[in-house]
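check this one:
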Amino acid sequence: MDNTKRICLWSGPRNISTALMYSFAQRNDTSVFDEPLYAHYLKNTKANEYHPGAEDVLLSQENDGSKVVKMMTTNKDNKVLFFKNMTHHLLDLDKTFMKDVINVFLTRDPFEMLPSFAKVIENPTLNDVGYAMHIDLLEYLNKQDIKPIVIDSKDILLNPEKALTNLCEKAGISFDKKMLTWEAGARTEDGTWAKYWYDSVHKSTGFMEYKPKSEPFPESLNPLLKECLPYYNRLINS
């Protein structure tokens, strides 16, 4: 491997992963990539039947996940490469490449995440939200003696500078204050799905202040919440 720092973010949906991508995009030494494995996921699951804009994603991205992984591990566009990924997009791909990248797990309390996700994807399942797959991936990395960085999105919102400084230190790069703010609006790196998911981050100029959910939790999501909580608790305590 070369001297390029390759950061692979493994997130679930609605976890401020896009805001974190925008944050890293402010660095002069960093290039960012928005969910490069999304088309691979859509091509190989029934998610293409209900994800908004699925056809556009499949047309805009490489559909072969193994080719995407090769790009991620050989690209030398900048000193630091930040790949924003969803954990469930991995599917059955060979994970041996993970020994050569910096793996960051981004999670969020499902009590706060599920209502937000369900506003776009009706009747979500455990496979849609990535909590179980985070643990599957964690177990794989543990067996390979690969130590991931685990972050709860709430910690970033509570104190962005402290959380990002800690993340950068663990990733072996220096923190840059430019990471705390950005211009409102879309970025050229945004995926074709941005119009369905990125409205709030496009209106933002930095990480939003953390505010606990005030709306009642939807009763219909209680069974899924019960499924997700053990995985979430295990990850944040790993």
